Structures are given as C-alpha cells and as structure tokens.
Amino acid sequence: MTATAARIPETSREWHLVARPVGWPKPEDFALREAAVPEVGEGQILVRNIHLSVDPYMRGRMDERESYIPPYQLDRPMDGGAVGEVLASRAEGYEVGDHVLHGLGWREYAVVDAARTAKVDPKVAPLSAYLGVLGMPGMTAYAGLLEVASFKEGDTVFVSGAAGAVGSLVGQIARLKGAARVIGSAGSDEKVRVLREEYGYDAAFNYKNGPVVDQLKEAAPDGIDVYFDNVGGEHLEAALSALNLHGRVTICGMIAQYNATESVPGPRNMVNILAKRLRVQGMIVSDHDALRPQFVEEVGGWIRSGELKVRETVVEGIENTADAFLGLLRGENTGKMIVTL
Questions:
Q1: Across the chain, what does the average pLDDT equal?
Q2: Whether pLDDT at 182 is above 50
Q3: How far from 332 is each of 153, 258, 299, CA to CA, in Å?
C-alpha cells in the first residue's frame, strides 16, 4: 500500500436495502450500517467517497425482477455512482491523492478494482460534475437525443422531466444543435421558470396545471418532431398525439410508474405509431460508449464557454442518502441530485 496506516479507516458506514418496497419506498426500507473496510487486494484501490449519486433507475433495482442491471440484494450494501479520493493503492498507475469515478456508492469508503474506475480531474471540472453533466446523466442526454432520436437541425423537441439531471441537458443540447423549438414539462412553476429563464427553453409548462395533451398542443401548435421521455404515462400519450410524420421518441425513463403496485395501461393512442410512421426506441446509456469521446469533447467545450447551464441539488451527509433518493422520486431536485459526504 502507498498510504500511511493512520489515514486508512477501519470501518465504513454503508446503506443496505432491508425490505423490498411495495409502491413508494419508505425510510424503513433502508438501513445505515457500519462495516469493516476490506483489505486492499492486488489491482485494487481504497477510495474515500466525496460525492454520491442517487438516480431514478435505482428504484427498479429495489424490485426482485430481471432487468438490464441486477437487483439490489437485501441486507447487502447498495451501489451506484460515486467520485472520491484514493487513500491506498495496489494498482499500477493509481497513486494516493488521485480522484476516481466508480460504481460503489451508498457508502463512505470503497475498495474497488482499479480496472472498474475512471480517473477524473478536479482541475477540469468540479468533482460532482462527473456524476452529472460529464457523467451518466450527461451521456444519456447526449446519446439519447443525437443517436437514439436522430436529432437534426430544425427539429421541434419536447422533453418531459425537463428540470431533472437528464432532461435539463437534453433541451439545452437540442437548442445548441439548432432546434427550431424546445419545449419542456416539469412539476412546479419554479422549475418552469428555470427552464425558460436559465436553460433557454422556448416554452415550458407545469404538468400539474392541466392535461398534458392540452398544454403541449398550446406550446407546440405545429407539432413536435422528437420526444425525449423521462416520465411515461400521460406524457407519452400526449406526445404520440403531438408528434409529426416520421417523428422519433427516445424512451429514457418512466418515473411516473416506477412506484405503481398494479400494471399501468399503455397509451390509448398507439395507432399513431402506425399512422404517423413513428420510431419509438428505448435506450440504456451503456449501449452508446463509442460516443463518449465526442461527448466529452463537445459537452466539455459548452461547459467551459458557459453555453451549457448546470444546476445541482446537494444533500449533505451520508446519513441523508436515503432521504435524498426519496426526495428525487418526489421531484424535489432541480438538476442532478448529489449527496456530499
């Protein structure tokens, strides 16, 4: 090891899932427990986590069902995106004091295989940005709009969940790439103000203020060409009505039904997919890794120039991680939800 023994902790607090949620998760479904820090093996590093990520996809991992990512195990540490500082290393190319992005969040300290990490530079961007705009949410927005939805200059784009970590970037990227009109929906009047005044959306509405189909029609009288779906449900049905001929839909998330206890009926107007020759495609960000160098170069440039505006909602303390996740599901965040330790 390359760290002094005084710096290496003996124990770490970590969050466990102790009950599978039925409907909306509850605080008692989680437990913060203390565990011994494992020995650092060959090819591994010990990381002191500085920022943790909580994300909507984690809700699906709390159910015991097959998906694109394994479910969380009961009474075992949960995981997710994290960025931190290397305290000890038995891996070539990693030194004490390096900063890395890795997948063992929901805990204070993590022993990680170095091959499953990526070095990050706090001089290039704040460390939390690697969990947001320069991390999974940013890559999701970039690939989902440009590759999955085949965005082209002059398109009219509608984004649901437009004030969230992904949605807030989709609309801005569309605008920077030459969209004719960018429309967003969000769950509060304050978020709608942010969409219009800070992120440059041409139109935005609070979906709680009336039927989505009516508000979308008013915001996009000439229809839409691309729908980026973070919500599902009523939003998807409204978008299928508003899409123009040969429109494209990226299905990124369906947070409106993640906590449903019964089967949720699909849109009643799916005949539009046929009549309008629409393309509806689901996306998982890991399918688009080949796009990453282009993403880092282009999005990094927009951040440096100030053209891309980024917000974070920061919750302090490992003990508040579960509350931050529950707040995320309730829509309490604007931009990326980050837990800072």
A1: 94
A2: yes
A3: 33, 16, 26
